[in-house]
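Review box. Two proteins, two foldings.
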Amino acid sequence: MADEYKELIRSMMGKKRYTHSCNVADMCVKLAQIHGGDVNKAYTAGILHDCRKEADAQTQRSEMMSSGYYVDPAELDSKSTWHGIAAVTYLRDELGITDEDILNSVRYHTVARAAMSKLEKIVYLGDLVSAERDFPDVEKYRAYAMKDLDDGMYRALKWAIQNLSANDKKIPVSTVEAFNYYMDRRLKKKGE
């Protein structure tokens, strides 16, 4: 199926997004290998995570609202988060993917949530630090993700919240809850 998904997304997006999706899939596989995750699920979620990114806004909104997932008002106000939720509907209804871990990984790859599964963390971080990413300090975030998924999540979420607030963007409740969750895990680890 991996090759089929790769060909499918090639037809759904431009070259830049396709390259990004392939890079995310590769990073997800790498993180799964390092952290003992399911390589096949990591590849599938990584290659498909942005499958609805280039769908028109009306399609994204419609698919998002029929996903069965709760949509936070902050997500509803931010079109840049719609594609992850919309993708769940597409994966389930068009591709027949029913694995909840894959669906959750795609759904939460932009906003995160507390107590994410290993696969969810791998996809969130894989998207953030894929090969073509070149934001300041990306190498540090790659190293954090490779070393420890929970610490990587804490640092990635701290960075995301700072960026959102600096740009006067609303922060979904699940993102705040995720940050608090991974901060608590970090503090408990330091206290051991």
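Next protein.
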Amino acid sequence: MHIAISGNIGAGKTSLTKLLSKHYRWQAHFEEVLENPYLDDFYNQMERWSFNLQIYFLNSRFGQLMEIQKSGKNVIQDRSIYEDAFIFAPNLHSMGLLTQRDFKNYISLFELMENMVSGPDLLIYLRSSIPNLVSQIHKRGRKYESTISIDYLSRLNERYEAWIQGYEKGRLLIIDVDDLNFVDNKDDLSKIIEKVDSQINGIFN
């Protein structure tokens, strides 16, 4: 069983991955943020480092998926490989921060990798408004995220919504997180677990 949790920056993917991993006692795979050597440079000079950053994330997530498939274990993954290719890279390209040449190279590499891995059994999409995302980003206080603009987050949100509407890789669970505090409120977390249980039971039955 492979669950992937998707959503915009600040939606709560990592927190929910940790909580569900603990609840189900499944292995967790996290996005390599602290280890990423390009993030600081990217947020300070996006046009220069966009391609490097996207290739790093693509390679990292592809490696995770290969490991997941070989392990045969139940896994919960923080962000899917599809978000890089269908949201972040196209967004950078449309903003003029990723050249046409680099974008074509990136998509070609993604399509090659995609043919070698399977999609998650269940994708959980954390839907969030921009004010909520901004609040959560400020709350966690990561220095490299302090320069993220509302326009950038809005562009990403629009692409997330368009992508989710056409998602057909497997089961999909959409959770609106604006009015949920699943980190501090056990009732809110229980509501999410009930929905996930329903999806998991549907897969196994």
